[in-house]
Prior knowledge:
- This protein is α+β, with helices and mostly antiparallel strands.
- The protein has two domains: 6-156, Up-down Bundle (Four Helix Bundle (Hemerythrin (Met), subunit A)); 169-401, paralog of FGE (formylglycine-generating enzyme).
- Helix content is 33%, strand content 12%.
- It is built from nine helices and twelve strands.
- The protein has helices at 6-23, 42-61, 72-76, 100-119, 123-156, 225-233, 245-254, 294-303, 311-316, and strands at 183-186, 189-193, 209-213, 216-219, 262-263, 273-276, 279-282, 331-337, 363-366, 383-385, 394-395, 399-401.
- The strands form four sheets. A four-stranded mixed β-sheet has the order 10-9-8-11. Strands 1-4-12 form a three-stranded antiparallel β-sheet, with no helix packed on it.
- Strand 6 (273-276) and strand 7 form a beta hairpin.
Amino acid sequence: MQIVVPELQHAYDEVRRHSVALAEPLSAEDQNVQSMPDSSPTKWHLAHTTWFFETVVLAPHLSEYRPFDERFAYLFNSYYEALGPRHARPQRGLLTRPSLDEVHAYRRYVDEAMSRLTSTLREDRLAVVAPLITLGLHHEQQHQELIVTDIVHALSCNPLMPAYRPDPAEHVQATQRAQPLEWLRQAGGVVSIGHDGHGFAFDNEGPRHEYLLHPYEIAHRLVTCGEYAAFIADGGYARPELWLSDGWAAVQREGWSAPIYWSRPSSDDGNWHVFGVSGLQALDPDAPVSNLSFYEAAAYAEWAGARLPTEYEWEAAFDAPGIEQMTGHVWQWTRSSYDPYPGFRPLAGVAAEYNGKFMVGQQVLRGGSFATPPGHTRRTYRNFFPPAARWQFTGVRLVRDN
């Protein structure tokens, strides 16, 4: 008996449409630019997420499926060693071919094949295929956020300082004056950490396990731009005693003196301005500070007489009375290295390379930013980046020992 999966198809259609909508404000030239090795062109994101569905879902599970273009497997594989060689990541901006029109044709071709698959999905295959489609949707949502972060970095390199879109989306939550910082006492004790198995989660969010926390206090809100400006004014970037050794080396090597997108235009009496999705704007002192590296976040915490939370402290305080801005503003650096939980096992098959092999040299971030697609985050979500990364929408929440 054949069954139709309308909810899954609807979710697929919505996610795929949103990726295209994110690219709509951009020209074809915008969508081909790559401003650094850690970022990717918008066009590549649109193609890579399509390749994922083609390779992981369609090729194994739709018998009559034929690839749109067999050469695309080399161009748009990201890091899956089991799937063969691939184009070098730092050279993705050189892919002027295929054209943007061809990439959209590729997306339509795969979307039509996915519709055929979901409309003819038999019950005995549903348990196998549906989780792969769901994984692909969450994978595409990750790339939707990268579309925004990567193009903001690219546009910041343009002397014209063009806006990705005119509405100041990153300031939506900063229309009210930031309240004085409050410290919320947490009792600690043995807490359950990790995903409970209900609903979707990436493999790195489990298994659920117990963890012992000492009593601590957590800030009820995020650190603001105004507070971080005070750190700069107090010589924060010139005081090695505040910095981890690797962080201080980065300050010296890279010449850091402020967050990556902060500047002081001479036309405005040297006041701080911040570049973002809406272009260059006057600094909003009440907005959460963003685009900090882990090193900058840790140095600020040291200056403020506090520290960064562990990911366990952050998760345990997610629903604490009085807590604010846990999601939807900026990702929040934690003091936890990105390691496997006790008993961790990667997903089977190709997806085994999704998370586990990156569990070295990375720091965990929690929460989610204004650019994270709605519904994509949860309290157990573990994002991760190298400690020097600054182009993501990353900020600071403080804790201190009780």
